[in-house]
Amino acid sequence: MTQPNEYTPPEGLNNSGLAAFAVKTQFDWATQQRNSLLARFASAQLGFFGLFDAVAVAQKSANFANITNTITKATTLAAAVTSGVAVTDAFNGTAANDLGASWTRTSTGSGSGFWGPNGIGAAVWKPSGGVTRQHYDRHSTPLFTDFQAVMTVVSAYPKSNSRSQSYTYLVGRANSNALSSATFVYLRIGINSLALGKCVAGTFAAPWVEQSTTNVPGDQISFLLGTNSSQRNFIVVQNGFAVINHTDTTSSNFGASYRYAGVVNAAAADVTALASRRTQIAPASLDLFAAADRQSSTT
Description:
alpha+beta, Jelly Rolls, 2 domains, nine-stranded antiparallel beta sheet, six-stranded antiparallel beta sheet, 4 helices, globular
């Protein structure tokens, strides 16, 4: 006969208590997981973003909750700034090869392939051929300040093999130029890494810092540009915890000409295959893009 224990409370032993049992065990599991993470990473946890990302710590794959959570986060951040702006896109439209009228796309690379909504709530890479292709989607609405948060919910991380790696880049502090001459600061998202750097006049500089991470679909990622300590202090938050905190010493640009945000998707060619059989290696699929002004003290 089943006896009550730490996993099965007394009310779980009769039919009338099954619902309470299910609720309680779900709550207990989430609380235990969250408390364990908080104990291990207490020194790295951030205030505002730790609070809003608690749902991701408990159940990182709950994409709908994470999307709603991140949209709320963006609007809350912008509301705390005079004339603050928030832009969001949950990619809820019909399937398409681009992101629509709210975005400006420029592209480089000799290949084809597209990045756009799949019709079921995500923006995905649609391969064509086996040659590299990069699409830069800049949101047409600029933010109002230099203190920005660029955020996403990842539904699938970029693919890779032994010789080829695709990336997705969250972009902040961008000018209005096309990708071939654009200047911005980027957060590069890889299959199991996050890296911080800049692009100047269309040339991607080597990352300032790269952090190995354990990436899981459903992750919330926030890229914070500028803090109280420095306008060139950048923080990367993954599910409520700071994984990168770096101050740039290379004089990355900011100011009124660098207020746009966006995303770059770079599909690589599978060079391990014969040229006639090469396919594109897909960058990330995203469930949400969001960007907002924020107070410099909000981390």
